[in-house]
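The step that takes the researchers longest sounds almost clerical: writing a folded protein down as plain text. Below is the pair of lines this work produces for a single protein:

——
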Amino acid sequence: MPIADWKGKPVKGKPVKGNPVKGNPVNSVGGFLHHIEACHSARLPGDRLPFRIDGATVGWLGPPMVRALAAFPGVELGADAVTLGEAAALPAIAADLARAGLFRWRGEAFDVRGDLDGPALAQIDRGALPSFGIAAEGAHLNGLVRRDDGLHLWVAYRAADKALDPGKLDHVTAGGVPAGMTPFETLVKEAGEEAAIPQELARRAVPVARIAYAMDRPEGLRRDRIHCFDLDLPEGFVPRAADGEVEKFELWPLARVLETVRDTDRFKFNVNLVLIDLFLRNGLIGENWAASLRRGLDAGEGRADA
């Protein structure tokens, strides 16, 4: 089965080969639960109305967006839903709303679906996704290095001028899946652009999990599904910040990564979820708590779908 077509659920109990860290499994997990709960903060529908295209619910609209859409022809406001009559009109509507200051235009089209595994019904600029409550997909890479003293992970420092989460810690490469691309294709592209990882090396990445969540953020409703990959990188390989989105990379022992996730908010919000999955798959969290954390990660399955 091609990696790009993988649609399985998170892999449970599939450890990375080799001794990842020294010491006993962690049994203090309050910090991990904090990150999981933060990413499941949205309560749907709340005060939102469904946004429908071609009979499918593709998003969730808060009162300000409902009022803004009322001015557009072809948009039908009902008591229980907002319906767009012509899917092809969505990009132009989003552009008008961005010019009006409702959200930041990103210049990157994303597919719009009622079911993330179903067909694309329309396209919309990435910057509009949270305002419309439309689900998106992303690809995140655990860049792993095996050394005699244990497993290490490449950590990226996001650039200070990033519009979202500037200066936060991140994966060696991660990115949203643009229109017409698969998560694996996105991973390979982003690996080259963000970290100068050659295509032939990036293509060795292995899919290990899918994690979904619905989260209230300053920019709006984030309904995301992350495709998680592991990649063994040669000990002599050093990623290079190629496109300015990353300030620098550092190679951390996995024990340091675990402590930072558990005890701080230094990592970007959704990166924490992917790393918790990595810790669980490697048996780094005690059995008494591992099942609870796994249930928390799996609780988002389906929440990214409308």
Observations:
- The domain at 25-42+136-298 is CATH 3.90.79.10 (Nucleoside Triphosphate Pyrophosphohydrolase).
- The mean pLDDT is 90.
- The longest helix spans residues 183-195.
